[in-house]
Amino acid sequence: MSALSESRGWKLVAPHCDIEERVHCIPPSAQVRGLWYKGMLVVLRQMEKLDEYCEYFPDDHWSMLSYYPLSSYMLRVAVAGALIASPSDLHRGMHEAMRLNATAFASTILGRALFRILAKDPIRLTEQAMAARRQGMSYGEWSIASRGPRHVETIYRS
């Protein structure tokens, strides 16, 4: 990860969002696994934006199971959002990237199997998602609160 490529990314997104303030709030221990980066690259390829993205981060190489700084991931998601939508509408682009990432996972063999097994029980499905999240990130805490037979709330604490 070169400082120059990170600098280009910051210049693209910082004027359009509060990422600089948010990054300063991240503890150094907050990390995400490389699979999150890899998933974003799949989405960018689908959107035909991968080559443009790689111009910002040409030296990136992510191992699926290794942990990487959350701040680095946040910058890359913001850049991806800016490329998918536009810099001024990067939040919409980020939303689209994460939606497509979830859709891509749901279409994998593992995703289809999990949904088939857990689809009848939304609480178990939510619990499985929370367990998977714990394997992919080293920060924050999620809990689940059942508010009724068809109402589940996920609570996030950072």
Molecular structure report:
The chain is of the alpha+beta class and 158 residues long. The protein is built from eight helices and four strands; from the N terminus they run ααβααβααααββ. It has helices at 3-13, 19-24, 34-46, 50-56, 70-84, 90-106, 109-118, 122-136, and strands at residues 31-33, 67-69, 141-148, 151-157. It has a two-stranded antiparallel ribbon with strand order 1-2. Strands 3-4 form a two-stranded antiparallel sheet. The mean pLDDT is 84.
What is the number of beta strands? 4
**Cα-atom Rg, whole angstroms?**
17 Å
Average pLDDT figure = 84
Q: Which of globular, elongated, flat, extended, rod-shaped describes the shape?
A: globular
Strand order of the largest sheet: 1-2
Tally of alpha and pi helices: 8
Structural class: alpha+beta
Helix content: 55-70%
Distance between the termini: 26 Å
The fraction of residues assigned to DSSP E strands is 5-15%
Q: Poorly predicted ranges (pLDDT <50, ≥5 residues)? A: none
How many strands, what sense, and barrel or not for the largest sheet? 2 strands, antiparallel
- N-to-C SSE string, H for helix and E for strand: HHEHHEHHHHEE
